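Q: Predict the assembly, please.
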Amino acid sequence: GENVEQHPSTLSVQEGDSAVIKCTYSDSASNYFPWYKQELGKGPQLIIDIRSNVGEKKDQRIAVTLNKTAKHFSLHITETQPEDSAVYFCAASIIGAQKLVFGQGTRLTINP
Amino acid sequence: DSGVTQTPKHLITATGQRVTLRCSPRSGDLSVYWYQQSLDQGLQFLIQYYNGEERAKGNILERFSAQQFPDLHSELNLSSLELGDSALYFCASSVGQQLNSPLHFGNGTRLTVT
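A: Predicted assembly structure:
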């Protein structure tokens, strides 16, 4: 399969709280899982990625976890700030089709 | 700034017409990818080129074609345009051709077909 499901589609959190976005994938051979942030009027920007030989990766306030058995991965943003407001996309490599498939996106709003 | 340049930023044209979108990849990147982003479809992979050769194909319509030139810039040609082709078209580039090479996206071309 080539599906990447992303939830929730919208998320609103108070500044300083944590935000979690979850994705599931169907291709058991997938081995690369990047996350992108897209601000209004701009292209998606890579913020963190994880490969299948790692279960967790952290970069300052951003972390990604991967559960290969369950075929899901999550983005965690701690101590959220107004500039974190954007649309976030997960993606997974689909080996057979030689492409990266993106989730439908999550619009994250940080309320001051 | 990702280093990927796309022109034009906006394009308004009529149904039945043909347009060309242009992309210059980051310096040193050999792969170029084209994606279509519409409100109800998210980011859809169209096609990938690596060092001038087609590498992978996604949901690209027969009315659409692309190529990568010796200087590594790429063009996406859209012909016999329909209203449903209105979307944001993104170009991305990466160093390698493998799927685990991080993609760097340009800021897109917004196409409006009237």
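Chain A has a mean pLDDT of 94. The radius of gyration of chain A is 13 Å.
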